[in-house]
Amino acid sequence: MPLNLLKFALSKAHPEPAMFTPRDRLKPSYDAVIIGAGGHGLAAAYYLARDYGMTNVAVLEKGYLGGGNTGRNTTIIRSNYLTPEGVKFYDESVRLWQDLSQEFDLNLFYSNRGHFTLAHTDASLRTMRWRAEVNKHFGIASELVGPEEIQKACPQMDVSCGGKAPVLGALYHAPGSIARHDAVAWGYGRGADQRGVEIHQQTEVFGIQTKAGKVTGVQTSKGEIATEKVLCAVAGSTPRLLHGLGLRSPLYIHPLQAMVSEPMKPWLDPIIVSGSLHVYVSQTARGELVMGASLDPYELHSTRSTLDFVEGLCAHMLELFPFLSHVKIVRQWAGMADMTPDFAPIMGKTEIEGFYLDAGWGTWGFKATPICGKTMAYTLVHDRNHDLIQDFSLDRFKTFALVGEKGAASVGH
């Protein structure tokens, strides 16, 4: 089979177009520059081109497309948040996710699984009930369920957790899904590229040029670019770029690690999350278990992974699923989570005219990819924050109008 695939790949009888157009050099100027070729940056470029016809756009990436947090997350998609602002925002994102594969003509492996957020204490059970009622108020399918329903959906789970932290119930969120993260980046990137957007990989941004409080250009490793609009979507690298502009933010960067098991026969259909045990897990279409835990307890601008993480996460996984003791871990990785004090993103305009910010995504950025792209594209074109992101502006930290999403951030804290 591998030899036949190689013959097919090399055959001139079945030419396959390149996913992206190679770009050798930058143009002197662009209508807009997007820094960061992750899911959010590429989605914004795609919707700028598709919805507004803005194609004179450059997406700059110091590494490779989708090589940042987009390729380092655990791909969980949900909208069962706590605040009205968060619920409305992520619910629109879930709606967009459902049609992306068809829109891109690319299999994103989008799979609706259902999502259980386990409660191990009376306090967490009250929070799950609170979240369920907020979700229902906005027409989102979430409900509080007991151990019996959890056991029925996932009979392999030990709901007693070995007697250490018995599961008392869970918030069940029917729309919970997973998708293939790299395919999402490719889909948005190819769609933007086909519409004329330029994607420049291996192009580092050194600084953003301003004059009289307005953006005038971008300084890169391949020269200077003139532009009046810049969208910064660089996750853990955001503080460095903001510092160069004299902007302050409340962002703090923590490593967030994940790991994947060897493939096995399908047995875990739903997505399982436990904030108390600091575990979240789902099974991919290839049979691997994709697992994550809480943030590392120290600030560090690094993507290194540690043995301590693997040991701790495996111990908690075995409390839920003791039968996995023989399963091997095949790889682990880390990303940089840009956290905000209220566990909600920072989006929209800034005090510098023409500079737009998309940051503070912490552990919840992947699921927001489609709606982030649409709302940031709208904001760039109209120079006005989209209604769905009005409450996520950077100014909220000056006025203390915080969103307060920590109770629904799963194990991001």
Features:
single chain, 413 residues, alpha+beta, 8-stranded mixed beta sheet, 6-stranded mixed beta sheet, 20 strands
Summarize the structure.
By secondary structure, the chain is of the alpha+beta class. 29% of the residues lie in helices and 24% in strands. It has helices spanning 2-10, 39-52, 84-97, 100-104, 122-137, 147-153, 181-194, 238-245, 307-320, 369-382, 396-399, and strands at 32-35, 57-60, 76-77, 111-112, 115-119, 142-145, 169-173, 177-178, 198-200, 205-211, 214-220, 223-226, 230-232, 252-261, 271-274, 279-283, 289-295, 329-339, 346-349, 355-359.
User: What name does CATH use for the topology of the largest domain?
Assistant: FAD/NAD(P)-binding domain
Using the coordinates above, name the CATH class of the largest domain.
Answer: Alpha Beta
Estimated share of beta-strand residues: 15-25%
Lateral strand order in the biggest sheet:
6-7-5-15-16-17-14-18
Shape: globular
Query: What is the overall pLDDT average?
Result: 94
Helix content: 25-40%
Overall number of structural domains: 2
Radius of gyration: 22 Å
The rounded distance between the terminal residues' Cα atoms is 46 Å
Please give the number of β-strands.
20
Task: Provide a count of the helices.
Answer: 11
Any low-confidence stretches, pLDDT <50, length ≥5?
Answer: none
User: So, the CATH homologous superfamily of the largest domain?
Assistant: FAD/NAD(P)-binding domain
Briefly note the structural class of the backbone. Answer: alpha+beta
Describe the main β-sheet briefly. 8 strands, mixed
CATH architectural category of the largest domain: 3-Layer(bba) Sandwich
